[in-house]
User: Which sequence fits this backbone?
């Protein structure tokens, strides 16, 4: 293409010398036409003077590894790989231009490819995806690429593994939450396999098993958050098969690993008590130092996960070579078993820990029974003359309630005055009782008063009547 551009430019230079029979107007028109053709060729190259033209043929070792939707106007290494892939079939992409820019020629090549493999053959990029490399087209490309049958030349036997990934979004500010959709077993193998999804930021690799006998394609979406700025390569692999996508995150990069300082007090994690009834107050204590994975200059914190859905921060020293003692108290209000963990830095699966402990919280102890009521203090009965009759006397006494039993004997053989005990049917509250009796004659009498639920309180009053 560069030679072609040079040819057209040279033609512009020599045109006036070879056109002695043409008028000045004709020469100017021819020059304008040639300049337009040069501009069109530059547009096909995407404005990149270093554009490469890929030879056609079948190189099954090169796969596009598409991790996003590609369409007219976008650019990148994945576009370059797509163009190289399409150029392997001259009937699809006869121009064979690999510029990394998705222009009109690339869109036409994609449309030819989609029609050839019955993906879509009509409509527009906006309505049907005709000319756009979306998830369905990317899956078909991945399948044909991994089988080695693209370009009309039979390749090796179908492999046991195959898949691709799509990522949304592929760029943004930290912390950036992305969704990675992994489509595995695109080769419809029944042999079973384990795919590995590596997010590229040193976090835990996600394993995606496909059981033997499952011959269909599987889709699974995995959310992931990139905490720090940087360029990350997401890889889906199984055996020798691998496909990837790039995520660009803006923002501060990950902090450097802590500088290890020897001879520091060892980090520790102590829990007391580890069991008891709810509510259980537990104290977590120990030592943290600057060798902690969560350490940063100026002061960071580790995370204490109590295991009941709540957490607390444990401050780390602010300088290299420092250490701090910590003590945190937490109350467990519900019975159950809890796994408390002190993480180095933030909490999460795969994060290093200082220590962990299981805490057993039993049911709450029953409240103590109420103290028994104090015994009622009876007052002595009061005997006094009643009226002008010298033989008439009254007796007054108290009982704990209106239902308390009592028996009053006058001591002269007359009928006793009594009340059966009514138990707790009456409210407890002292009641004053008063009765009057007239004796038949002078003499010595003993008045006896019994009170209480069992008439256990007995009072005797001696009475002498004489004129």
Assistant:
């Amino acid at each position: 293409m560069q030679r072609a551009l040079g040819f057209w430019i040279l033609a512009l230079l020599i045109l006036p010398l070879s056109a002695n029979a043409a008028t000045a107007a004709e020469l100017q028109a021819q020059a304008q036409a040639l300049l337009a053709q040069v501009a069109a060729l530059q547009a096909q190259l995407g404005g990149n003077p270093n554009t490469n033209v890929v030879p056609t043929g079948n190189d099954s070792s090169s796969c596009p590894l598409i991790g996003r939707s590609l369409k007219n106007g976008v650019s990148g290494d994945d576009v370059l790989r797509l163009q190289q892939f399409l150029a392997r079939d001259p009937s699809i992409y006869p121009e064979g231009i690999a510029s990394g820019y998705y222009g009109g020629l690339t869109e036409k090549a994609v449309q030819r490819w989609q029609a050839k493999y019955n993906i879509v053959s009509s409509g527009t990029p906006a309505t049907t995806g005709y000319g756009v490399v979306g998830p369905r087209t990317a899956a078909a490309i991945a399948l044909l690429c991994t089988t080695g049958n693209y370009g009309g030349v039979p390749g090796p036997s179908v492999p046991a593994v195959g898949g691709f990934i799509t990522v949304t979004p592929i760029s943004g500010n930290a912390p950036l939450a992305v969704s990675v959709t992994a489509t595995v077993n695109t080769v419809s193998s029944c042999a079973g396999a384990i795919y590995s999804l590596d997010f590229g930021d040193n976090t835990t690799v996600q394993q995606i098993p496909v059981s033997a006998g499952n011959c269909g394609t599987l889709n699974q979406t995995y959310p992931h958050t990139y905490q720090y700025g940087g360029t990350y390569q997401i890889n889906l692999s199984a055996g020798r098969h691998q496909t990837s996508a790039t995520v660009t995150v803006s923002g501060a990069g990950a902090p450097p690993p802590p500088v290890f300082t020897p001879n520091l007090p060892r980090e520790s994690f102590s829990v007391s008590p580890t069991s008891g009834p709810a509510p259980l107050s537990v104290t977590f204590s120990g030592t943290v130092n600057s060798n902690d994975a969560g350490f940063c200059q100026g002061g960071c914190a580790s995370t204490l996960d109590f295991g009941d859905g709540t957490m607390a921060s444990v401050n780390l020293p602010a300088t290299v070579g420092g250490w701090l003692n910590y003590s945190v108290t937490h109350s467990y209000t519900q019975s159950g078993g809890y796994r408390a963990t002190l993480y180095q830095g933030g909490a999460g699966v795969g994060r290093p820990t200082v220590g962990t402990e299981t805490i057993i919280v039993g049911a709450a102890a029953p409240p103590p029974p109420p103290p028994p009521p104090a015994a009622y203090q009876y007052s002595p009965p009061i005997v006094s003359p009643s009226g002008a009759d010298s033989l008439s006397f009254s007796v007054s006494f108290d009982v704990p309630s209106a239902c308390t039993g009592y028996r009053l004997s006058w001591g002269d053989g007359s009928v006793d005055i009594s009340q059966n005990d009514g138990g707790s049917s009456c409210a407890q509250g002292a009641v004053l009782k008063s009765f009057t009796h007239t004796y038949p004659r002078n003499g010595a009498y003993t008045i006896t008063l019994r009170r209480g639920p069992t008439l256990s309180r007995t009072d005797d009053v001696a009475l002498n009547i004489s004129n």
